[in-house]
Write a structure and sequence with these properties.
It is a multi-pass membrane protein. The protein is an all-alpha fold. The protein contains 15 helices and no strands.
């Protein structure tokens, strides 16, 4: 197994995914407003488009996960990346918002990148090294999202559709790169049955004692994470009046610090604490960060909380490593697909629900209320992890 080229490709894939997303984030409102002729209409279409992606991902991710077990990781990953490139091209050429909805839904149906990447890492890394590998993926994620918005803003100033062309070129170039350098990590098992019933795949995972707790903990953590991603800028602007430049600087600095921290600290911390304790510590740090953000009354408190939140990223990598250890080698794709499906449900429902709660809370004394709710979900995730038996290797090390 050529592990170094494979892991390098996965890191490039995650980086390009987030770079492409970051490229289009600053431009999407302008494009939809231009297509609909109305800012309010553009905002409504943005919500429908994002929800269609999450819904189709929920329906398709478990199927793609099983396909990765049946046919191998490589073809499913390259198919997912190809669909992403087509989606970006549609954004660059679509004459109406309805076209964007259709193609973004197609991209959601093909959105198996996270599922297959997580399964691939489990295939090519030994269990003690997985947390570090997942930490490196988290670093690539953060770096891509750091560079994307700045580049997207520059390209969008030239033409509102140019960032979508650039994102499509990156995604399709990554497909070409993968065709030449990506080896198959695990031959497919044609005895693995495909199922078109994604809810059954999710329920099958949830019924298992250890996997069910880990999947629920991951889902609760996703609710907390998405709430913070959707509302953080709105809260700090409302509370402190930060400018767009100030926001961009703080977000870029935070993302860069997170990337460095995940790349350099995840491996040593998880080796010392083990997957379980590191995951619980990260979940607790995330809960404290969100609760502190809800109550912060001065900008310096926000800066300190951003630093505390770095520990949460280690928890996420440790939890992914733990989930891979608890999963058999012949069903990594199936389980990762089910977990991705749970996350897709959160992606579908949480943005609308959290935004509505935030709008309601603005009329009261605590506009940070959604962050307290998110902190409760993060704490529930940490408690679920704490109540789950440690991986066998960790228990043996503690004897």
């Amino acid at each position: 197994m050529r592990r170094a080229p494979a892991l390098s490709f996965l890191l490039v894939t995650v980086f390009v995914d987030m770079l492409g997303l970051g490229l289009i984030v600053p431009i999407t409102p302008a494009l939809l407003t231009a297509l609909t002729g109305d800012p309010a209409g553009g905002a409504r279409w943005a919500g429908w488009i994002q929800s269609s992606y999450g819904l189709l991902q929920f329906l398709a991710a478990p199927v793609l996960g099983r396909a990765a077990d049946r046919y191998g990781r490589r073809p499913v990953l390259l198919l997912s990346l190809s669909c992403l490139g087509v989606d970006y091209l549609a954004h660059a050429t679509a004459p109406a918002a309805g076209w964007l909805l259709a193609f973004h839904a197609l991209a959601g149906a093909c959105a198996g990148t996270t599922t297959v990447v997580d399964a691939y890492v489990a295939d090519v890394t030994a269990p003690p090294a997985r947390a570090r590998a997942y930490g490196l993926l988290g670093a690539a994620f953060a770096l891509g999202f750091t560079a994307g918005p700045a580049l997207g803003g520059l390209l969008g100033a030239v033409d509102v559709r140019l960032p979508f062309v650039a994102a499509a070129a990156l995604a399709l170039a990554n497909v070409a790169y993968g065709l030449f350098v990506l080896p198959e990590s695990r031959p497919g098992d044609r005895t693995t049955a495909l199922s078109a019933r994604p809810a059954f795949a999710v329920l099958d995972v949830l019924r298992r004692p250890v996997l069910g707790r880990l999947a629920l903990a991951r889902g609760a953590a996703d609710v907390a994470r998405i709430t913070g991603q959707v509302l953080w800028t709105f809260l700090v602007v409302h509370r402190f009046g930060w400018s767009t430049a100030h926001l961009g600087l703080v977000m870029a600095a935070s993302a860069l610090a997170g990337a460095l921290f995940q790349a350099l600290a995840t491996g040593p911390v998880v080796r010392r604490l083990g997957d379980r304790r590191a995951a619980v510590l990260g979940g607790a740090a995330g809960a404290l960060t969100l609760a502190g953000t809800a109550l912060a009354s001065a900008p310096w408190e926000v800066y300190v909380l951003q630093g505390l939140g770095l520990l949460g990223s280690i928890g996420g990598a440790a939890a992914r490593s733990w989930l891979s250890r608890a999963t058999g080698d012949d069903e990594q794709g199936t389980v990762q697909g089910a977990v991705t499906g749970i996350g897709a449900l959160a992606d579908t429902a949480v943005p609308a629900a959290a935004s509505a709660l935030f709008a309601w809370s603005l009329a009261g004394p605590l506009p940070g209320l959604p962050f307290l709710v998110a902190a409760a979900f993060a704490a529930a995730s940490a408690l679920l992890l704490a109540a789950t038996p440690a991986p066998p290797e960790a228990r043996q090390a503690q004897l």
